[in-house]
């Protein structure tokens, strides 16, 4: 089981760069990059809300649950 982060997909749909999103969300580029690549183990709801607000999407558009194989 794992949580898959689709932040890169939403950023591409909204044509938003990592730098632009980091500035809007007020999060470091390094931390946003870790989130984008799925290298984080947790995310604050406040950060998730800010990302969803910036990308005009729902949390489910960014995070996906997979049972794996």
Tell me about this structure.
This protein is mainly α and 69 residues long. The chain has one domain: Orthogonal Bundle (434 Repressor (Amino-terminal Domain)). It has helices at 7-14, 18-25, 29-36, 45-55, 59-62; strands spanning 2-5, 63-66. It has a two-stranded antiparallel sheet. The longest helix is centred in the C-terminal third of the chain and has 11 residues, at 45-55.
What's the quick description here?
This protein has 69 residues and is mainly alpha-helical. Helices cover 57% and strands 12% of the residues.
Mean pLDDT, all residues: 94
Known CATH architecture: Orthogonal Bundle
Strand order of the largest sheet: 1-2
| Number of individual domains | 1
Give the helix tally: 5
CATH names the topology as 434 Repressor (Amino-terminal Domain)
Give the overall silhouette: globular
- According to CATH, the homologous superfamily is lambda repressor-like DNA-binding domains
Radius of gyration: 11 Å
Name the assembly state: single chain
Identify low-pLDDT runs: none
The CA-CA distance between the termini, in Å, is 8 Å
Strand-pairing-aware structural class: mainly alpha
Per DSSP E runs of 2 or more residues, the count of β-strands stands at 2
Question: In CATH's first tier, which class applies?
Answer: Mainly Alpha
**SSE order:** EHHHHHE
Strand content: 5-15%
Proportion of helical residues: 55-70%
**How would you sum up the major sheet?**
2 strands, antiparallel
């Amino acid at each position: 089981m794992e949580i898959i982060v689709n932040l890169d997909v939403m950023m591409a749909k909204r044509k938003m760069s990592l730098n632009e999103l980091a500035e809007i969300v007020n999060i470091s580029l390094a931390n946003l990059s870790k989130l984008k690549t799925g290298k984080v183990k947790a995310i604050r709801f406040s950060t998730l809300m800010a990302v969803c607000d910036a990308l005009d999407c729902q949390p489910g558009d960014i995070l996906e649950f997979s049972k794996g194989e």
